[in-house]
Amino acid sequence: MKRPEKSIIIIGAGIAGLSAGCYGRMNGYRTHIFEMHHRPGGLCTSWQNRGYTIDGCLHWLVGSSPASNFYRIWQELGAVQGRRMIYHEEFMRIEGRDGKSFIFYTDLDRLEQHMKDLAPGDRDVIEDFSRGLRIFAKYDMPIDKPPELYSLLDLLKLLSTRLPLMRAFMKWKNVSLADFAARFRDPFLRETFPLFWDVPDFSMAFMLMNLAWLHNRSAGYPIGGSLEFSKAIERRYLDLGGEIRYRAPVQKILVENGRATGVRLADDSEHRADYVISAADGHSTIFDMLEGKYVSEKIRTCYEKNPTFQPLVQVALGIARPFDETPPLAAGTSFPLEQPVVLAEKEHRRLPLHIYNFDDTLAPPGKTIVKVMFESDYQYWKKLGESPEHYRAEKERLADTVVALLDRRFPGLAAQVEMRDVATPLTYERYTGNWKGSYEGWLPTTKALFMNMSKTLPGLGSFYMAGQWVEPGGGVPTAAMSGRNVIQIICRKDKKRFVTTVP
Ligand SMILES: Cc1cc2nc3c(=O)[nH]c(=O)nc-3n(C[C@H](O)[C@H](O)[C@H](O)COP(=O)(O)OP(=O)(O)OC[C@H]3O[C@@H](n4cnc5c(N)ncnc54)[C@H](O)[C@@H]3O)c2cc1C
Whose CA is nearest to atom 31 of ligand 1? Predict the structure, then answer.
């Protein structure tokens, strides 16, 4: 006789929650997702304003190439079928004052040559960096099972087949971007190299990993933007027979005899299941929905001390101009300002600029979305948000300043602006519930990279966490993998063979 389906409640329809839902259905569980927003995707989203689509997430999608292991996961989730990917020659351009630019080419031979041309005296440092990059580029991500299910034999196999990668990883993991940049004798490289990710303690191992994916053409941009991508996974989930309820914020995770048994929603309704997975924000899951009752010292210290990705301000402009003279760049240009400018209380000497001239689905013909994004202090916005009038005024002021600065770089631009849209850390917090508006969870600093975050909590059975708050470094592929991994762990617990299908 067929065993009755066990049930799983999933909190959150971001990429991790949708992924857990899809794999739960593939493995014969009844799944119900409760999502507080009215659409899927969480941070992986886009929105419309005056005929323009503002993309809120994907600049690059790791696993976009059929040659990478991860592509299989995107196929299983129905996310890549029929989707056009583009691969940029240049990831990012960092302009200097004298017309010189440091370009992060995605091809590593070209990047190496470019760095040597810029700084011939730094040959040895550049070659060391390129050697590291080549090693990282040789290895793909293993996807077959989560680290929690590795046997000693699995670990030994992994180590023996990846020894050079492990060595390179150990060599680079504790080197910060800032420390490495300080090795360059050339002042221009020393200044521009760390702007790859403007976090001084960012681990070089993470940078090399990212550049390796770009080099392997395994981190393309999916045409159509982030919400279309998330909606494809939502469709796959519904086709698999999953249930989802929007505008359904979970307030409390119900616990009986040390086991999670269900959830209580904001409308006071209660829902029960055999398992509960929270794919929502980590802080509110642990400290609000579970009232801080299932926390080890390690978890508490982590939430008190470890740095998170600072939240963002995003000023998006819809501009009646094609920008076809500007090279397409995955992660944009950073250009120096004539005079420093104060944006949201912080002085900026450069402006990071994203021109979406490579995706014509986001703007009407001949027009373009342009974005300026920068990190900003959460507390500043939190305080400002107490006065809706001042909050709105600050957003207007920011948009005015950005338009004026861009008009200097692209004369005539101010008159071509048709749409202005400002998102702040409070926007991210309101729509996704992420702690302090963080856009990617834990920062992969030299200390935090691959810190081991457990997907379970001490003293609480039948409960799992998935998503960026249990996967330091965050990102869309990691979220998808995290949802998949949790279902693998549940299958193992139920002595079921984990299976997947591709639509
Ligand atoms: C500007 C920006 C650029 C980015 N660029 C990239 C990129 O190029 N490549 C990349 O890989 N990643 C990128 N990321 C990061 C990536 O978007 C995230 O790491 C990833 O989407 C996180 O997915 P998640 O499912 O773990 O969490 P989330 O997306 O935060 O999903 C959590 C879901 O839970 C819901 N929720 C929260 N609380 C509750 C509750 N109480 N009840 C019910 N539902 C709840 C939320 O509404 C949300 O839908 C970017 C992010 C941003 C903001």
Answer: 14
* Distance of alpha carbon 400 from alpha carbon 405, whole angstroms: 9
Residue-number span of the structural domain to which 479 is assigned? 7-44+66-83+223-306+441-493
Kindly state whether residue 436 falls inside one of the protein's structural domains: no
Q: Which of 57, 80, 435 to mutate to test the pocket of ligand 1 (most atoms within 8 A of CB)?
A: 57
Q: For 413, how many CA atoms within 13 A lie in the half-sphere containing its CB?
A: 21
- Judge whether 255 lies within some domain: yes
Nearest atom (ligand 1) to Cα of 62: 11
- Structure tokens belonging to residue 146: 């989560």
Question: Could you give the number of structural domains in the chain?
Answer: 3
pLDDT digits (tens, 9 = 90+) for 101-153: 999 999 999 999 999 999 999 999 999 999 999 999 999 988 999 999 999 99
Distances (CA, A) of 269 to 17, 18, 254, 266: 21, 22, 12, 7
The closest-lying atom of ligand 1 relative to the alpha carbon of residue 43 is 29
State the distance from the centre of ligand 1 to the C-alpha of 43, rounded, in angstroms.
Answer: 3
Alpha-carbon distance of 247 to 33, in angstroms, equals: 11
Pairwise CA distance, residues 100 & 92, whole Å? 14
